[in-house]
Amino acid sequence: MSVFVLLLGFPGVGKLTIARELGSLVSAKIVDNHWFNNPILRLLDEEASAPLPKGIWEYTARVRQAVLDTITAYSDPSANFIFTHAGVEGDERSTRTYQQFVDAATQRAALFVPVRLLCAEEELARRVSSPARRDHLKTTDVKTSRSRSQKAVVLDIPHPNALTLDVTFTSPLESAAAIRDHVVTSGA
Question: What global pTM score does this model have?
Answer without folding.
Answer: 0.88
